[in-house]
Here is the input.
Amino acid sequence: MNVERIRQDFPILTQTIRGKPLVFLDSAASAQKPRAVIDAMVHAMDTQYANIHRGLHWMSERTTEAYESTRDAVAALMNARDRSEIIFTRNSTEALNLMAHSYGRGVMKRGQAVLISGMEHHSNIVPWQLLRDAHGIELRVAPITDSGELDMAAYEALLEDGKVGLVAITHMSNVLGSIVPAERVVRIAHEHGAKVLFDGSQAIVHRKVDVQALDCDFYAWTGHKLYGPTGIGVLWGRRELLERMPPFLGGGDMISSVTYEQSTWAAVPHKFEAGTPAILEGIGLKAAIDYVQAIGYDVMAAHEAALTEHALARLAKVPGLRVLGQAQDRGGVISFALDKAHAHDVATLLDRQGIAVRAGHHCAEPLMHRFNLDSTARASFGIYTTHDEVDALADGLTRVREFFA
Amino acid sequence: MTQTDGFDDLRDLYQEVILDHGRRPRFATRLQAFDATAKGDNPMCGDRVQVWVKFDNDAIGRVGFEARGCAISIASADLMAETVQGRDKTDTRALFEAFRQMARTGSCPACDDALAEPIERLTPLAGVHEYPSRVKCATLPWHALIAALDGAKEASSE
Here is the structure.
């Protein structure tokens, strides 16, 4: 893969920050956008923009076609059996809330349990707490090991009593970079009668996701981390399960007919898509998927593995630096703490050197507490990240350490 | 203070006085005898501070604090404790308003002569205005102090 060639596709990367070249290492929070995505959205506004699924005029027909072609692209990306299994949401958070509402309240029964892991983002914790409190669903947490991997024995033990109706678990940790053994997670869950929902917000950026090969039941992700726009996310679900679920939000587009006495619902996926959707963002997402597919997941994964290996080797040489998690299978997300400096000071002092990292609890407070920390700094890589940028990070951190010594 | 150690690009926000007070705070202690205490909590970043105040008639006799957070929040708490010592409550509130303006904008044009001296002591923190997300780091201990003066247990968020 020619990274320099790829960097030319991302207009923002030529910026300088405080007179220094931008070193953007915060792609796990949100990735930068290639020219193709920007152009697709601008082109739609310039030439054909109208509301979709309702107009009988030329503009609406063209825009509907463009928006719906994204559904085909997503179905192909995830190897879904049917395009109707693709539901568009605002983001992963909304997809997970849709699941807690429509599957949790609509399909699960009181006394059943939801099982999450000890390395979830708040968006895969809080919706289940709301469900627990409103609907009498137990919430269980499968612990992780000191190396930051799912404790498989504990995971299986929590499924033993057969009460778990749904396993809702990250496919890849946004803090540790750990990738869970998804096929095993699904097999064990199914043996105990539980369905599996993956939060794939991070994983889909780093790994080819084939929902039929994984054999999972639901999979959520968001467009803006996959080089697409904000405001558009995806929930994939098995059609027979989606059909059993009541709607999430009510409104236009999601109905079959409405009277004051009662309404009937549109077929999936539209049953779950109330209101005017993020039309331009949907069109932008198609461009992002095309872009990623043209590069290829194998190529992206190899680039990222090389970068991550290089980064771990360089960071190991920074005095007083501790990396959280040593998972065997991991993606290009690395959280770390410096002994002499607080994570926020680290992030600000890196920013002075033109290096953008995230600092804080990364919306994963329980995981921070698991490692006895309040916050960490986090570097995360994208397809445009170079080895030189990783070196700049390591050198910058060494300076920060000396500055605070 | 050396300005030629290769860290000039880092030092405009993290001046020596901030590093020094962040590393070796003088007032980071829980007062055994106190008249008021309050906590401040910044849920966005996990910074926490508790402030204890001992009055000396109408004036602030002594302030002690315990803080968990970044160098800026600890240095700010320490400089605050040093600066408010001996001031009455009205002065302290006025100083807080002036400091808050400086943290947000980088300067305090409205600061009159009475505030000029204490504000000067807090000036090393003015650089946070460049980082809106870090302003709260500098003002959190002040919010806790004002809450203690108000008789509240927790600082209300900005």
In short: The longest strand of chain B covers residues 47-56.
